[in-house]
Design goal:
This protein is mainly β. It has strands at about 5, 10-15, 20-25, 35-40, 45-50, 60, 70-75, 80-85, 90-100, 115, 120-124. It has no helices and eleven strands. The strands form two sheets. Strands 2, 4, 5, 6, 9, 10 and 11 form a seven-stranded mixed beta sheet that branches.
Length: about 120
Amino acid sequence: QVQLVESGGGLVQAGGSLRLSCAASGRTFSTYAMGWFRQAPGKEREFVAIINWHDYSTVYADSVKGRFTISRDNAKNTVYLQMNSLKVEDTAVYYCAADSLKGTVVTGRWGDYWGQGTQVTVSS
């Protein structure tokens, strides 16, 4: 029911900024919580940020809190991840995901739909 396509990844220097976008299809997009996850080479996929569907409440991983901001524009069916003060350890493939029930409660099974990912590389 939901298709997700990420964009905006690229190469930036440490301390720089980048904004990722996730375009979603589906007539009921506004009823889904949306999230960003990332996976670095040789590591498991990890939670980054989630924004709820009705009150726009958010939750962030400790590693990105204060540097990243998740937002959504329901009229455009788009979710964003603004990344500031980027660090080399932020280098990863970033994935967009949607969940119909769990909201901002992060669990191992969060995410009903997933995008293909976009590469973010931070150089020193």
